[in-house]
Amino acid sequence: MGEKRAVILVSGGLDSTTVLAMARDSGYACYTLSFDYGQRNRAELAAAERVSASLGDVEHKVVTLNLDSIGGSALTDASIAVPEAATEGIPVTYVPARNTIFLSIALGWAEVLEARDIFIGVNAVDYSGYPDCRPEFIAAFEDMANLATRAGVEGSKTTLHTPLMQLGKGDIIRNGLKLGVDYALTVSCYQATPDGLACGKCDSCRLRRQGFLDIGVDDPTRYI
C-alpha cells in the first residue's frame, strides 16, 4: 500500500471539518465516515457530504445506526428538549456511548482499508462536558483498539489523532481558515432546520458563535 490512509469521523460540523482539513494537510488519503444514528439534526448529514467533497476525500461512507431506539439524549429523543441555556454537569445533549460506538466502527473500517490512523474532532477546552471527549477516554480506546484487532496483534499499531483536543474554538477556526475550510458549508446546531438553519441558542451554537467573535472573523452561519 503506497498511500498513507486515514479514517476521519466527519459530522458536518465545525470541529470535524477542521480535523479533516488537518489530516489532508498532513498528507493522508482521507476516508470520511459519518453516521445516520437517529439524530434530530438531519441537516448535518448533508453537510458532512458537502465538506468531505470540498476537502477532497477519497470516499465518504454513511453508516446507519438506530441510537434513537434507546433514546436517553435530547439529540435522539424528540420528547427531550434541547437546552437553550447553560447547564451544570453533563447535559442532556450527551448521547450515551456515542463516541465509543462511532470509533469502534471507524476502527473496523480502518482495518479493512489497512489504515493505521483515525482522526476525531473531540475537544477538552470548548466542549459541553461530554465524558467521551476527554483525553483519558481517547487513550483508553486506543489501548483497546490495539488489543482487539488483528492489525494490533500483528504489530500494526492504530493511532487515534485528536488535533483539536487542547484548542479553543477561536483557534480551531483560525487553523481551519488557514487550511481553506469554508465554514459556510458546515452545520453545528443541535436542532438545525432541515435546510441547515441554526437556532443560535443551543450550546453548540453559542460556542461556535463565540469562536468567530474571539478572532474577529465574520460568522458565516445561517441562523433562523
CATH superfamily: HUPs
Give the DSSP E fraction (strand runs of 2 or more residues).
5-15%
Instruction: Give the total of domains.
Output: 1
Spatial strand arrangement across the major sheet: 3-2-1-4-5
Q: Characterize the overall form.
A: globular
Largest sheet: 5 strands, parallel
Approximate helicity band: 25-40%
Pfam family, one: QueC
Binding site for Zn(2+): 189, 199, 202, 205
Enzyme class: ligase
Keywords: ATP-binding, Ligase, Metal-binding, Nucleotide-binding, Queuosine biosynthesis, Zinc
Give a brief description.
It holds the Pfam family QueC. This protein is of the alpha/beta class and 224 residues long.
Structural summary, described in words:
This protein is α/β, with parallel strands linked by helices and 224 residues long. It has a single domain (5-215), classed as 3-Layer(aba) Sandwich (Rossmann fold), CATH 3.40.50.620. The protein is 36% helix and 11% strand. It is built from 7 helices and 5 strands. The protein has helices at 14-25, 43-54, 98-113, 135-148, 150-153, 169-178, 203-215, and strands at 5-9, 29-36, 59-64, 117-119, 159-161. A 5-stranded parallel β-sheet has the order 3-2-1-4-5, sandwiched between helices. Helix 6 (169-178) crosses helix 7. The longest helix has 16 residues, at 98-113. The termini are far apart. The model has no long low-confidence stretch (mean pLDDT 96).
